[in-house]
Fold this sequence. Notes:
Elements: H1 7-15, H2 22-46, H3 51-77, H4 84-97, H5 102-115, E1 130-131, H6 132-136, H7 140-150, H8 152-165, H9 177-201, H10 203-229, H11 244-250, E2 255-256, H12 259-264, H13 271-276, H14 282-291, E3 301-302, H15 303-308, E4 312-316, E5 321-324, H16 325-336
Parallel strand pairs: 1-4, 2-3
Antiparallel strand pairs: 4-5
Helix pairs in contact: 2-3, 3-4, 3-5, 3-10, 4-9, 5-9, 8-10, 9-10
Amino acid sequence: MSKQPNNKAWIEIVSQYNQPDVKKSIWQIVNSLGPYIILWVLMYLSLDISYWITLDLSMLAAGFLVRMFIIFHDCGHGSFFKSSRSNKIVGTILGSLVFTPHEYWHRSHAIHHSTVGNLDKRGHGDVWTLTVEEYQELSVWKKFNYRLYRHPLILFAIGPFLLFVIWFRFPRKSMNAGERNSIYLTNLILGVYITGLILLMGWKALLLIQVPVIYIATLLGVWLFYVQHQFEDVIWSRQDDWDYKRMAMEGSSYLKFPRILQWFSGNIGFHHIHHLSPKIPNYNLERCHRENEMFKVIKPVTFIPSLRTMKLRLWDEKMEQLISFRQFRKSAASFTK
């Protein structure tokens, strides 16, 4: 393994890529939002031909919606434009298209960045993950709830849609004024957007188009977020051993996907670099990875192995790895013998 740079050196390395390029940013909005609008028109026209064509087009539209979510995500980090005002305006508008309130989501996401992989600071902007010991101490009913939550059908097929479409619509007492206002503003923009489309095409056409698009996009988006920190070689640690650089490099995945999937996911597969420096615009992540020797040691997670991560359920502190319920049962059975 090649020698890793010290803290000062790696900060200097990644900071070289922190500057957004306004032309690239604007072009990314155009080549994401533009095709999305065109696909909406095509989906509407296809309703008179065959709904199967509409559904096929909705899968492609969902891909562009995921790409717009990455832009929204960059805006929240202040990495898409130099101007904080531009980041907030674009982030709020694109966030509304993906049914996500800008201020509320990014506050939770900022906590995620500062606590990722920390076993003593779980529960903010992450996937609910218990240790083996914690799971063993649960009541039968709470074990059932955890298993239900971690089931792929709930985690990817049902939960994401409910989270983005319903949960994000309501403010809560724990939120500050800025977070509540972001929910009100997003709901207002959504109200105008939905009302306009109903007047233009009717409520039935709107539902037939919007529901599959947002459903597929939220499923893909949550799965991407999941595999970024829930993979076979991931590391987690307690607060005393938690280290920012190590957690970014080894606690965040490098998803090496086919080029087309990398494009639609806005290079977010270079998640190890994103956690090293959230200020790097998504279009600079690949270049940062490619140009620096320190990233050559990172083992990539390719597409097929990434699908296997869905069986991982618990963190085993003794083995220092995520394990499946099957592995847990096997380990428990051998221990009782």
